[in-house]
Amino acid sequence: MDTLSGFNTKVQDVEDRYQWINEMIKSRQNLVVAYMELLKKLHSNSSFVHSDELKEKLTSFCEDIIDYVSHGHFDLYPKIIALIENASGRSLSIAHRVLPRIEKTTDFLMRFSDRYSEASENEDYQGLVADLENVGSFLEQRFKNEDRLIIGLRLVHTIVSTPVQSK
Hints:
Blueprint (H helix, E strand, L loop, with lengths): L2 E2 L2 E2 L10 H26 L7 H37 L4 H24 L11 H34 L6
Antiparallel strand pairs: 1-2
């Protein structure tokens, strides 16, 4: 499996009409790489904590979080849910169970981004490493729940497109 520290970043085997799922996975990959690089630098270089490079990378990472979260909420999740509901003719409980879980991750990630997106000169980065480790945990939860939505979409697509065998 293609993962970075437990994050599912494997591009999906999808039909052409679902290539936007792979775009989401590629965005996920970029976010995870930026996260891992930032965390690695913080762990390996104590002077990095007080550098302009940290401020730049942290601001950029926060922007990436906002872009990823927004794209999911305003474009991808509604599209997945609409496809599931249209294909099945009803509202599936998977979407209703998964979306509140994703929302919890959104709340945390947005608070993190608000706190660190525009770091000032005198920013106290006490707790940044712990906050970043929590970001990793919340991203992992989010990705697992996004994967559940994709699985739900695949299941509905398979059920709807598989002809019923008569005896």
